[in-house]
Amino acid sequence: MQTSFSRFKLSPRWLISITLVYLSLVLLIPIVCIFYEAFHLGISPFFEAIQASNFTAAARLTVIIALISVPLNTIFGLCVAWVLARKQFWGRTLLLSVIDLPFSISPVVAGLMIVLLYGNNGWFGSFFQQANIQIVFALPGMIIATIFVTLPFVAREVIPVLEEMGSDQEESARTLGANDWQIFWRVTLPNIRWGLLYGVLLTNARAMGEFGAVSVVSGSVLGKTATLPIFVEQEHHNYATESAFAAAVILALLACVTLVLKEILERKTHA
Questions:
Q1: CA neighbor of 169 nearest in space, from 192, 200, 196
Q2: Would the N or C end of the chain have less CB density within 10 A of its end CB?
Q3: Integer distance in angstroms from the first to the last C-alpha of the chain?
């Protein structure tokens, strides 16, 4: 005798409906809500909010952190990806796991680690105090936190592309007399460019949207050490909802641009 449950068939139509409902509840409706709250009083309050001094300071700080952390992690990611894809050595698997640590460690814990190391009472705090360099609650600490959380993206995107490419073209170029720099620019980089750009794009998106680690090490002072995500949180707590939702709209638009570019690069990478 078949039960009603055994007779129930999960058709593709049901799966699509469940997916759409789930996405609507988790993603689409919250995004629509942000845009509604930002523009329901008209477009003038939105432009007034994004012209405020605290907002422009937060946007400028967010861009500065991204401009410094993304190139540094791109160079590191390229180097470590080449080593892991081309060389076999003892501890290779361990190094691969260490690179993935930022994926598994909470950003808040990462921020606390930076405070413990570089704070005034931290392991290296006295050294930086003597050098009159402020790390925590200043720009350097925020950059270190952003570098930590965005560390794996470039390496993780480039490693599979390098492994799929193989080393035959590089070895052929070497036998024809090309040096390492020429091999990288003329052989390796053209083959990995789309994967590299994809990794850079993800790194930039995470750098601009990071909250937890940067919040711990920044002090979250509006106009001084607040990035855009911190600005949203602070303004919402201060009941300045227009400013909070205006900044949230800017972050959402950045995310939309990232998604479009991500889709384009994914097609280029797998073409």
A1: 192
A2: N
A3: 51
83 exposure class (CB count in 10 Å sphere: 0-12, 13-18, 19+): middle
The SS3 of residue 61 is helix
Half-sphere exposure of 240 (CA within 13 A, CB side): 20
pLDDT at 2: 54
Closest CA to 214 of 159, 269, 168, 150: 150
pLDDT for the residue 57 = 93
d(CA 100, CA 10): 36
| Residue 223 token pair | 């106009």
C-beta separation of 70 from 150 below 8 A: yes
Beta strands (DSSP E) in the chain are: none
CA dihedral for 13, 31, 218, 64, sign (positive or negative):
positive
Q: Which two tokens stand for residue 146?
A: 């952003």
Q: How far apart are CA 81 and CA 12, in angstroms?
A: 40
